[in-house]
Design brief:
The chain is an all-alpha fold and about 250 residues long. The protein contains eleven helices and no strands.
Length: about 250
């Protein structure tokens, strides 16, 4: 009996040591990702990629690290017209999705890369496959709406956003996107209503707050109650190069 007890204590000790080592690796990976994001934001994309590669070495199952590395190589490859960087970026986007099949930013980055390299049909297939595999999520439909609008198909974009809101009626991205689409189409009152519903869920959308103020000043939606506005809280966790250019 004492031998069995000693073995059990040893087993527990080894398990604890493994868990501690895994925890340290994840902490180091997080620190390296933060450093990589800082380098990325400073425009040092190759150095950022090096940090993200080291983050992966510390935590090989981190979807965020694979996404960040893909984003850095995507940006670098696009700026330097380097097909090797772009090919690697595509591979790392796919690895990200292996570890997190519902990683929205990764789907967006890979979709953009496919469109930029002349594979728009493949980008639609990618997102449609995601929507089929995850019928409970609004995000695949929102991304399909974004892609449809960028391909000048507002009708399909609107239909996809309606589908997204049927799944998640208070999704602020879908509400913002539908508001923007309605504004583009000239329905300012409905745009204002959508924007206000979005702000009621997520107040930290300064651009939408500005649109609400502008629409109200123009007399759109008179009598529609306003939502409280607030300043955004800065901060980012991933190197998302599409933040300033994506419509929603």
């Amino acid at each position: 009996m004492p031998i069995i007890f000693t073995y059990c204590r040893l087993a527990v000790g080894l398990a604890a040591a493994v868990a501690l080592a895994a925890g340290c690796s994840q902490v180091q990976s997080t620190a390296l990702n933060s450093e990589g994001v800082r380098l990325y934001q400073a425009g040092n994309y190759q150095q950022a990629a090096d940090s993200f590669q080291r983050a992966i070495a510390n935590d090989p199952r981190s979807a965020t690290s694979y996404y960040n590395l893909a984003a850095a190589l995507h940006k670098s490859g696009k700026l330097t017209n380097n097909p090797n960087d772009l090919a690697q970026a595509e591979r790392y986007y796919n690895q990200c999705l292996e570890y997190d099949p519902n990683h929205t930013e990764c789907y967006r980055g890979l979709t953009v890369l496919l469109v930029e390299t002349g594979r728009t049909d493949a980008s639609f297939r990618l997102l449609e496959g995601w929507a089929t595999r995850s019928p409970q999520l609004a995000d695949p439909r929102i991304e399909l709406a974004r892609l449809s609008e960028e391909q000048n198909n507002q009708q399909l974009a609107s239909a996809r956003l309606v589908e997204a809101l049927a799944i998640e009626p208070t999704n602020p991205r879908a509400l913002t996107a539908l508001g923007r689409l309605r504004e583009v189409q000239g329905d300012r009152a409905q745009a204002l209503a959508n924007y206000q519903r979005s702000l009621a869920v997520n107040r930290y959308q300064p651009e939408i707050s500005a649109r609400v103020a502008a629409l109200q000043a123009s007399g759109a939606g008179v009598g529609v109650p306003t939502s409280p506005l607030a300043n955004p809280t800065p901060g980012t966790q991933t190197a998302n190069q599409w933040q300033s250019s994506v419509r929603y």
